[in-house]
C-alpha cells in the first residue's frame, strides 16, 4: 500500500532493508557475451547498438583513443537501468540522485583534475571564448567557471527528473483507474499504453543525452600535449 505518490521510488522494502539497489547490477547479468552465449538476434542487436554508439562518440573524440569504450559502457549501463525501471515491481535506480551523481561526479572530477594538472594553459583558454571583448573577459571567466562547476549536477538532475516525471504520471493514472467507470478505464488503458511507449523512448533518449554530453565535456580536455612518462628501454 503506497503512503504517497513518491513512495514508488522508495528503495526500502517491507523489512526496511534497501536490497532494491541490487537491481542496479541486474542488467550486467543479462548482457550477452560471445564467449558464453551462442550468437543470436539479441546479440546482434546489442552489438549493433554498441557499434553505432562507438561511431557517434568517435566523431567527437576523433583524436582520443580508448575513451569511447568508457562512454559506450556508460550508455549501456544507464539504458539497462532505465529500461528495467519500466518493468513492474522493479526498482528504478536511475530516478535517484545517488545513482546519477555516482556516474557524473567522479567522471567530471577526474577529467577536470587531469586537464588542470597536465594542460593548464589549455583549460584557462577555455574560460574565455574566442572573440570575446576585453571588457567582458572577467564576466566570461565567472560564467564559464560556474557552468563548469554545475555540469555534473545538471547531468544528474536531468536524468533523475526525466525518469521521475514519467513514472509519477503513470502511477497517478494507475491509482485513479479503480475509481473510474468501465468506459473511462478503456480510454485510460490506451493512455497508459501511450505513456509506456513514451517512457521507453525517454529511457533511450536520456541514456544517449547523458553519455553524449559527457563525451562533449571530456572533448574539451586536451590530451595531445599531455606529458608522457619515459618508458625505460629493455637492455
Automatic annotation (TrEMBL):
InterPro entries: ATP_synth_F0_asu, ATP_synth_F0_asu_AS, ATP_synth_F0_asu_bact/mt, F0_ATP_A_sf. It is found in: Membrane; Mitochondrion inner membrane. Coiled coil: none annotated. Keywords: ATP synthesis, CF(0), Hydrogen ion transport, Ion transport, Membrane, Mitochondrion, Transmembrane, Transmembrane helix, Transport. GO terms for molecular function: proton-transporting ATP synthase activity, rotational mechanism. It is a multi-pass membrane protein. GO terms for cellular component: mitochondrial inner membrane; proton-transporting ATP synthase complex. Pfam families: ATP-synt_A. The chain crosses the membrane at residues 20-38, 67-90, 97-117, 123-143, 155-174. Gene3D superfamilies: ATP synthase, F0 complex, subunit A (1.20.120.220). Belongs to the ATPase A chain family. This is ATP synthase subunit a. It comes from Macrosaldula sp. PJ-2017. The lineage of its organism: Eukaryota, Metazoa, Ecdysozoa, Arthropoda, Hexapoda.
Amino acid at each position: 500500500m503506497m503512503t504517497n505518490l513518491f513512495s514508488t521510488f522508495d528503495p526500502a522494502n517491507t523489512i526496511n532493508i534497501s536490497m532494491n539497489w541490487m537491481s542496479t547490477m541486474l542488467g550486467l547479468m543479462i548482457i550477452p557475451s560471445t564467449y558464453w552465449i551462442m550468437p543470436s538476434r539479441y546479440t546482434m542487436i546489442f552489438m549493433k547498438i554498441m557499434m553505432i554508439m562507438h561511431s557517434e562518440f568517435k566523431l567527437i573524440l576523433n583524436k582520443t583513443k580508448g575513451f569511447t569504450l568508457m562512454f559506450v559502457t556508460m550508455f549501456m549501463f544507464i539504458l539497462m537501468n532505465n529500461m528495467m525501471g519500466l518493468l513492474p515491481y522493479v526498482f528504478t535506480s536511475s530516478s535517484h540522485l545517488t545513482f546519477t551523481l555516482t556516474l557524473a561526479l567522479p567522471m567530471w572530477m577526474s577529467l577536470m583534475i587531469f586537464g588542470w594538472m597536465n594542460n593548464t594553459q589549455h583549460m584557462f583558454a577555455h574560460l574565455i571564448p574566442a572573440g570575446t571583448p576585453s571588457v567582458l573577459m572577467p564576466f566570461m571567466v565567472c560564467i564559464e567557471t560556474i557552468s563548469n562547476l554545475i555540469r555534473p549536477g545538471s547531468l544528474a538532475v536531468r536524468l533523475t527528473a526525466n525518469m521521475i516525471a514519467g513514472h509519477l504520471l503513470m502511477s497517478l493514472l494507475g491509482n485513479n483507474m479503480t475509481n473510474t467507470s468501465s468506459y473511462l478505464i478503456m480510454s485510460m488503458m490506451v493512455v497508459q499504453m501511450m505513456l509506456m511507449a513514451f517512457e521507453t523512448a525517454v529511457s533511450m533518449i536520456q541514456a544517449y543525452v547523458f553519455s553524449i554530453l559527457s563525451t562533449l565535456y571530456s572533448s574539451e580536455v586536451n590530451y595531445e600535449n599531455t606529458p608522457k612518462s619515459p618508458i625505460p628501454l629493455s637492455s
